[in-house]
Amino acid sequence: MGANLARNAARKGFKVSVYNRRSERTEKLLAEHGDEGVLQGSTDLEAFVQSIARPRPIVIMVKAGKPVDEVMEELIPYLDEGDILIDAGNSLFTDTERRSAEMAQKGLRFFGMGVSGGEEGALLGPSIMPSGDKDAWARIEPFVMKMAAQVDGEPCAAYIGPGGSGHYVKMVHNGIEYADMQLIAEAYDIMRGVHGISAGEIAEIFKGWQKGPLDSYLIDITVEVLSKVDTKSNKPLVDMIVDEAEQKGTGRWTAQSALELGVPITAITEAVYARGLSSRRSQRDEASRLFKVETKPPFKASAAELADLHAALYASKIVAYAQGFEQLAVASNTYGWDLDLGTLAKIWRGGCIIRAAFLDRIREMYAKEAPANMLFGPYFADAMQESLSAWRRTVARAIESGTPVPAFSSCLAYFDGLRRARGPANLLQGLRDYFGAHTYRRLDKEGSFHTRWSQDGSEIDA
Ligand code: 6PG
């Protein structure tokens, strides 16, 4: 990805210096792509730093975690006051905050820069989420804005805020990516498990969904992945891929942060759990032998059932994004970042993995109003209302056939929990008060109260 970012900048007319610890990588890049612009390679770190005009913006693209600190330690002795290190990996936002503070103490500047779009995006135009010293932004802005994907003539990049806010935003982007992918995988599983449809036919169904409200990069690549035939077995390649999902951590971090902030992001968290469960290979094998469960056998899908599934996928997707945006709003208030949610929807319209037509609807909504929950925006409220019955039927069919749909069903449960003015938490409060005297509030008067449940049953003003 680092090489592709360098090529992207060179192609846009910027002079780029490149350095890799393994000098053969630098040589290969220059040999294969040196003619794409002004790309200058160094085999020596000091020479690399000296080749850059001051104040030097230096992009670091290495694995998140310790490698970032190691590269920074190597670079810092050669830097001059005001130079700017830019970490373009998927770093944990708290690491970025720490690194920013450490750099500031040395008179140096630091940017955490979320970059989404994979290898191809890095080359052709990613979505870029930079944060850090505002006074360093002017130095970085021209190349960030030009390297980013462009949608309707606008760059898919913007200054996000101070400290680790850019990496936080990128982290939630990835969390939403997890949820979106899990929902697509569940739709695929419903077509397999509930309706017995083959991978090739499922690809055709997704193809029919490419245009319309689900229009997105992830649906496009779903069609490609499901259509691919394995040359060795002559079967759909997807049928030959081991069903254990790996993860590098950004989805888990999103869920951890949401738990700390108290934001219910059920879709993202269920997507992380689903990956965890998928990797419990031996337990799954044992359970599949042990539990012979009675379920409804697969039945041929009618057009109406597929229309229900489409509606259920769309409604669940809206909930997943609404939850992600709420997390961003709460994090922004908690950490004082002043995030502009409309801008985030705007810069995710192109370049990134979750790019989708749908993000334009989110951007439009935030341009007019900032409801407490994205679901309250008129466009989304109507979509939820229209999809609700189809969504329930789809989840019910999946449950009857024994097809697990944790993201579909948790999104529906979240929606049902949200739309009820009165839920069952009154009983939770009663139980908490019973065993721990934690007190409760009453509907009919102000204050906190405790009942002496197991003593004389009287209520006291707490
Ligand atoms: C992106 C991707 C990118 C990476 C994910 C994969 O926005 O370009 O999200 O950052 O592909 O981190 O994450 P997992 O390995 O955890 O699925």
From TrEMBL:
UniProt EC number: 1.1.1.44
Binding residue positions for substrate: 90, 116-118, 173-174, 178, 248, 275, 432, 438
InterPro entries in alphabetical order: 6-PGluconate_DH-like_C_sf (IPR008927), 6PGD_dom2 (IPR013328), 6PGDH_C (IPR006114), 6PGDH_Gnd/GntZ (IPR006113), 6PGDH_NADP-bd (IPR006115), 6PGdom_BS (IPR006184), NAD(P)-bd_dom_sf (IPR036291), Pgluconate_DH (IPR006183)
Catalytic activities: 6-phospho-D-gluconate + NADP(+) = D-ribulose 5-phosphate + CO2 + NADPH
Active-site residues per Swiss-Prot or TrEMBL entry: 170 (proton acceptor), 177 (proton donor)
GO molecular function terms attached to this record: NADP binding; phosphogluconate dehydrogenase (decarboxylating) activity
Role: Catalyzes the oxidative decarboxylation of 6-phosphogluconate to ribulose 5-phosphate and CO(2), with concomitant reduction of NADP to NADPH.
Protein name: 6-phosphogluconate dehydrogenase, decarboxylating
PANTHER family the record matches: 6-PHOSPHOGLUCONATE DEHYDROGENASE (PTHR11811)
Pathway involvement of the protein, from the record: Carbohydrate degradation; pentose phosphate pathway; D-ribulose 5-phosphate from D-glucose 6-phosphate (oxidative stage): step 3/3
SUPFAM superfamilies registered for this protein in UniProt: 6-phosphogluconate dehydrogenase C-terminal domain-like, NAD(P)-binding Rossmann-fold domains
Complexes and interactors: Homodimer.
Listed GO biological process terms: D-gluconate metabolic process; pentose-phosphate shunt
